[in-house]
Design a protein that fits this description.
Largest sheet of chain B: none
Strand content of chain A: under 5%
Number of domains of chain B: 1
Number of strands of chain B: 0
Order of helices and strands of chain B: HHHHHHHHHHH
Number of helices of chain B: 11
Oligomer: heterodimer
Strand content of chain B: under 5%
Distance between the termini of chain A: 40 Å
Helix content of chain B: over 70%
Radius of gyration of chain A: 19 Å
Distance between the termini of chain B: 33 Å
Chain lengths: 272, 274
């Protein structure tokens, strides 16, 4: 019985991830289209760092361009996804099938991460070729920081997915409204917390509640100041806790929505 | 004119009518302000580390970034009008009614009205936020004369944005999927080539010529002359913005009308966006 459940969970997660992976890698135009925004923004901000008098910091803009693609993916392909599935009638299939919700959500996240990887890598490569910022050599702490940042970020995506389901049809507008403010507070392109942050302490404290903030801070410190796990552990521990909390909250919220939906019929209405 | 007014009303309904209008303005102003603040913080971090912070450059960035978010948000509207219209079958009906151009122009004007309000609010809120966060007062002048000159420049900017928007609408007639891909690139290019966040002189030499030929560069410069000074630069930049803006508008009109004709002959008008 347990073996069957585990097998089903893995198969569902794998299938959901593969849909995303095949959709991205099977259509190179999709990758080209997704590179544009982060790449050109990071190039413009790298020019600004150079103009401000410190070309060594152009790497902040390039790293931000590489990571902002994931934040966009979390908003558009995680948070809004179930809302779109509801509109297209897919959500009702999810709820009535034996597929575990956690497997669907984790599969969606894994597919999103793998699907966004080419955009992120292209931005980093092109930005590095153009501005040659001083990156430290890759280390285990960098890899761990990168993985934990993504898991925390996609965990937040799982929580937001359930929230968007409640909010109704305005997912696109909410995404538009959230993208820039969260990018600003998270310090995607500049240090918003800790060393070198221009923000007041109160704002830094608020920003620290966003997983992307802690992840970007740790990534910058690993990439540009070669800090090790011994120095980054508070960020990494917080990211780990945030990941678990976000997944638990997201799944619980979805189960609650599902229960309420089954009773009232609200959640399964296909919107025109 | 009646068609144009009807289209403006439709556009305003689409921009503001999906929820309470003040909420729409708030939801548009917050990201625009955050975008301006990000750009100023990038400058602040770089310049502080280099020990060369100048409040004049912060004013330069506030005006440039606010106008960039304004321009880049409404140049999308013609493309959106065509692609959404194709999905909902509105566009073929508009086309049959022989008012496709006034429909597109009306949608751009509606988006311009909403975006101008957002840009002005973003300018004010980012000025205040920078004052609070960084403790500096960027040298911006908000007298009625300065604001009137700034508003005049925004109106002139409408012709260039409409020209570019019509070119994107022409593209949208033929595209059946990922139609938002090109505007993302164009918006990103505008950030680099329109002097929105750094002077054209920071670009490598051949690229400076491209930037100087863009009407948006002169629109942003004229706006800066209006709000930061010196005011004697305003007439030249305003003239260049007007001439180049009209040239872009005429080019956009020509391309759009040609694309519409071609789209009609080849049956792209009612081809749905995937």
């Amino acid at each position: 019985m347990l073996r069957h459940s585990v097998e089903l969970w893995l198969r569902v997660a794998f299938s959901r991830a593969m849909i995303r992976v095949l959709a991205t890698y099977g259509d190179p135009l999709w990758i080209v289209v997704n590179i544009g925004g982060p790449l050109l923004t990071s190039i413009a901000l790298a020019f600004l760092y150079g103009f401000a008098g410190l070309p060594q910091l152009t790497g902040f803009a390039i790293l931000g361009g590489g990571m902002v693609a994931y934040w966009g993916n979390v908003l558009w392909s995680m948070a809004a996804q179930l809302n779109w599935d509801k509109r297209s009638g897919m959500l009702y299939l999810y709820f009535t099938s034996p597929a575990p919700l956690t497997a669907l959500l984790i599969g969606m996240s894994l597919g999103g991460i793998l699907g966004t990887l080419p955009s992120s890598i292209f931005v980093l490569i092109i930005g590095t070729l153009l501005f040659n910022p001083p990156f430290s050599p890759p280390t285990i702490s960098l890899l761990l920081t990168f993985i934990l940042t993504l898991t925390a970020l996609y965990g937040m995506g799982i929580s937001l997915a359930s929230l968007y389901l409640i909010l109704g049809r305005e997912a696109e507008e909410i995404n538009d409204a959230l993208f820039e403010p969260v990018s600003f507070l998270s310090g995607v392109y500049f240090p918003s917390i800790g060393r070198g942050s221009p923000l007041p302490l109160a704002l830094q404290a608020i920003a620290s509640l966003i997983p992307l903030t802690l992840g970007m801070d740790a990534l910058r410190r690993a990439v540009f100041y070669a800090e090790s796990i011994a120095e980054l552990w508070p960020n990494l521990a917080a990211l780990f806790i945030m990941t678990l909390a976000a997944i638990i909250v997201g799944v619980k919220a979805l189960s609650y929505i599902e229960t309420i939906g089954r009773k009232t019929g609200d959640i399964l209405v296909t919107l025109k | 004119m009646k068609k144009l007014l009807a289209s403006i009303a439709l556009g305003l309904e689409r921009e503001l009518g999906w929820t309470y209008p003040p909420l729409v303005v708030l939801l548009s102003t917050v990201p625009a302000t955050a975008s301006v603040l990000t750009i100023v913080m990038v400058y602040w971090v770089g310049a502080s580390a280099a020990g060369e912070v100048h409040t004049g450059w912060i004013a330069f960035l506030i005006v440039g970034a606010s106008l960039f978010t304004h321009l880049s948000s409404y140049i999308w509207s013609p493309l959106s009008a065509v692609s959404e219209g194709k999905t909902s079958y509105t566009y073929p009906l508009v086309f049959i009614a022989h008012s496709s151009l006034s429909y597109i122009a009306g949608r751009v004007i509606a988006s311009f009205i909403e975006s101008s309000l957002t840009a002005l609010l973003a300018l004010g809120t980012s000025y205040t936020a920078i004052n609070l966060i960084l403790g500096v007062s960027p040298p911006l002048s908000f007298t009625p004369v300065n604001l009137a000159l700034f508003a005049l420049t925004m109106v002139v900017g409408l012709s260039a944005a409409l020209g570019l928007g019509l070119m994107l609408a022409a593209y949208a007639i033929f595209v059946t999927r990922l139609e938002w891909g090109l505007p993302v690139y164009i918006s990103g290019m505008l950030m680099i080539f329109s002097e929105a966040i750094f002077p054209v002189s920071a670009l490598p030499q051949p690229l400076q010529i491209v930037a100087e030929a863009m009407p948006f560069t002169h629109i942003i410069r004229a706006s800066r002359a209006a709000l930061i000074g010196p005011l004697d630069r305003y007439p030249t930049e305003f003239f260049l913005a007007t001439v180049l803006g009209l040239a872009w508008l005429l080019t956009g009109l020509f391309i759009y009308l040609y694309a519409e004709e071609l789209g009609r002959r080849r049956g792209y008008i009612d081809m749905r966006v995937a």
